[in-house]
Amino acid sequence: MFGYYLDLALRSLKRTPILTGLMVLAIGLGIGASMTMLTVLHVMTDDPLPGRSSHLYVPHLNPLPLKGNFFANGYDPSDHLTWPDAMALLNAQSARRQSAMAAGHLLVRPSAVGMRSFYVDGRYTTADFFTMFGVPFERGSSWSAADDAAGAHVVVLADSLARKLFGGTDAVGKMVRMGENDLRVIGVTTNWQPSPLFYADSRTKRYSDRDLFFLPLSTAVDLNLGTDGNVDSWGKMPNGDMRSATTTWLQFWVQLDTPTQVAAYRQFLIDYSAQQKSLGRFQRPATNARLYSLMGWLVHENLVPGDVRLQMWLALGFLLVCMVNVMALLLAKFLRRSGEISVRRALGARRRDIFVQFGIESAVIGVAGGVLGVLIAELGLWSVRHRPDDYAHIARMDASMLLTTLALAVFASMIAGLLPAWRACRVAPALQLKTL
Amino acid sequence: MQIRPILSTLRHHKLTAILLTLQVAFTCAIVCNVVFMVAQRVQRISVPTGIAENELSAIHSRGIEKGENVQARHVADLAALRAIPGVRSAVAVSYSLPLNQSESSSGMCPSKQALDRAIQRNSIDGSGCVQPALYDGTPGLIATLGLHLAAGRDFLPDEYVSKGKPAVAIITRALAQKLYPGRSALGQSMYDGDNFFRVVGIVDTLLRPALSKPGVDGDSMIWPQRPDGSSVTYVLRSAPQDRQRVLKAAEAALLQASSNRIIDPKQMQTYTQIRNAYFQRDTTMIGLLIASVLGLLFVTALGIAGLANFWVQQRTRSIGIRRAIGATRGDILRYFQTENLLIVTVGIVLGVLLAVLMNLLLMTHYELPRLPLWYLPIGAAVLWALGQLSVLSPALRAAQVPPVVATRSV
């Protein structure tokens, strides 16, 4: 029966080409606009480290005093840790792995003649960073916990920076001058760029920036290299001393493999806060200490700009109007065939058969509209990629979004066809046959 | 024109008519709100900065030589820049320019008592103190930026300092009115907790480097402090058409004066580029919003025209009968126009209510003010016009149906 209904649907659609075209266009425009924005939202909220992300957590302590206006810069200063807190969590070793980190921005002075100095972005961090996030190495390796403790003058370079500085030769063992210091290259990572750069703070363009070097946090603090990330102080700022207990600037990540470990770590944070409170350092309740999962942290950090959300709602509103439009047109079209319906009913077709017949006709429109919608969405994404926003370059449709587009188009047109088909199958045959 | 026969026909197509009404209602609601958002953004991006925007360009330089005498460097650089043909004047600033997002601000109080109030409340709000954006620069800043001095004077050469805080300041009219309401700000002393700053001049407008709320965006002050870091931004004034050439020449001149520096091509911009970059998201959004309004109106017009076309075909016979028993072409034309008017009007009434509801919903999620009521009649008029335009061609076709159709069988 399906083949027959499909044939009927195609014949009927061919009979009214303009009306059919209008319906396909309406579904195509609505689906195209919606899928453009849903795809942008999908790539922006994608998992940056599939496979590892479910074990990664961010501890959140609140060392802020009770009084004061701390939200002037649009973010919460307690999203970052102070040096004493980060070191306490690091040394406690309560998680399977833990690492503190901050953004760096350093001048590289190449030794090669004729090459100008340039600035690069990178990360000051601790040994566990590489194993915890699974950073792949091309050559050499990362530094050890002993290097962290000693403040060793070593650096890990990203593949592109190593290539730029040393050409094709092996960079490991070479010296590189960063800022005013000579650092020994001990490892070269492959092209590693999680999107978004989940561990960076809100000053980073998290969809386009990447780290080109990594060096021990203790070394950076010893050499007073300064951070490129958010720095917030309260009380008297002790002249840029990054070890201050009233300055937040460090990001901290831990790896916890089992729910028991997660619960234990949460308790550890509360106990730590309680201890700090009894020492008089923290003023807020110890139960304010929190542990965010990676995806939960990205939600907390509110990565998707309000404008993108607004655009998505606008596109969905547009789709709704398009669907009402198609619904009205389908209804008019189906009811016009009351005579045909009545004849089929009189010849023995059940209501269900009529319903299925028109359902298939709506689905055909949906498939055509879906194909048009994919084209329009590709066009929309192409225009998004030409925006100068930092998420622009990742706005691409993958296979799953392509299938979603087609499915959504068929679903939308079937929903739109539901009411008209139901109305059509309730036509009273006797009344119509009389007028024929 | 009798409404009754139209109503009785519509009763036969109840469901279709309701759907069309709903479509008009949704379109009306969305269009009113989106056009309002467009107006908001247009207002935002057309805010005046108070400076001679189309004559300015900026180039950023960062010295990388250790132990360099930065003051001497800046003086030498400025001399080299002023020698470029076409450059009318040049000054150095630390980093702040209107709308370039590099802001430093500081709490300023009209008096020591106000500061005590702020400390007591642990908040600047309601204390009389304000948090203006700070602008610094070398002598000639006011003239180079093209600021209009409304009262008082420019800084005197001996008022400029390189280290520490200066003793005088020039503030915007907006800041003056906030700090010293009802009296002249000239000669008053502002207090930041450590130092007093005497107001020697008032400029009309100088926008902040980063906008937040309309009420505070004009709160700026300039003080006579020379930039004192290896990182510095040079501001050049030239004829508008010379700016690209002047920027290229400036890069060459700076590198010739000292090659021990980094000039980032991304921070080598005409002021127009700086402004456009600041509002880039808004301009994209305006384009998208307008496109979605046009798309919506287009789809709705197609829907109305498509359905009217369909109804005309369906009713060809009854039109013929009406014509045969004496209806004129005008009667048939007006019949379809009135039918459309009825449907659209009901849709608009619903749509206006929906528009207000949607606006209330948006207000809770986005920083959007209340929808001014005069948008509603305009939105209604647009949809009425759209409805009449889209129904015109099918209605004209209906009017062409000859009476003889009545005598033919189906």
Layout of strands and helices, then pairs:
The complex is a heterodimer of chains A (436) and B (410).
Chain A (H helix, E strand, L loop, with lengths): L1 H14 L1 H28 L11 E5 L20 E2 H10 L4 E13 L8 E8 L2 H6 L3 E4 L4 H6 L3 E5 H8 L8 E4 L2 E9 L23 E4 H6 L9 E2 L13 E9 L3 H20 L11 E4 H8 L4 H31 L1 H9 L4 H35 L13 H27 L3 H7 L1
Parallel strand pairs in A: 4-9, 6-8
Antiparallel strand pairs in A: 1-11, 1-12, 2-11, 3-4, 3-7, 3-11, 5-8, 6-9, 7-8, 10-11
Helix pairs in contact in A: 1-12, 2-10, 2-12, 2-13, 10-13, 11-14, 12-13
Chain B lengths: L3 H9 L1 H32 L10 E8 L6 H13 L4 E7 L18 H10 L11 E3 L5 H5 L3 E4 L15 E5 H7 L9 E3 L4 E8 L16 E3 L8 E8 L4 H15 L3 E2 L5 E3 H8 L1 H35 L1 H9 L4 H37 L9 H25 L11
Helix pairs in contact in B: 2-9, 2-11, 2-12, 3-7, 9-12, 11-12
Walk me through what this model shows:
The complex is a heterodimer of chains A (436) and B (410). Chain A is of the alpha+beta class and 436 residues long. Chain A has 2 domains: 2-45 and 305-435, no CATH class; 53-301, no CATH class. Chain A has helices at 2-15, 17-44, 83-92, 128-133, 145-150, 159-166, 217-222, 259-278, 294-301, 306-336, 338-346, 351-385, 399-425, 429-435; strands spanning 56-60, 81-82, 97-109, 118-125, 137-140, 154-158, 175-178, 181-189, 213-216, 232-233, 247-255, 290-293. In chain A, strands 3-4-9-6-8-7 form a 6-stranded mixed barrel. The model of chain A has no long low-confidence stretch (mean pLDDT 89). Chain B has 2 domains: 4-45 and 281-407, no CATH class; 95-226, no CATH class. In chain B, 50% of the residues lie in helices and 13% in strands. Chain B contains 12 helices and 11 strands. Chain B has helices at 4-12, 14-45, 70-82, 112-121, 141-145, 173-179, 243-257, 271-278, 280-314, 316-324, 329-365, 375-399; strands at residues 56-63, 87-93, 133-135, 149-152, 168-172, 189-191, 196-203, 220-222, 231-238, 261-262, 268-270. The longest helix of chain B is centred in the C-terminal third of the chain and has 37 residues, at 329-365. The mean pLDDT of chain B is 90. The interface between A and B is large, with 46 and 39 residues.
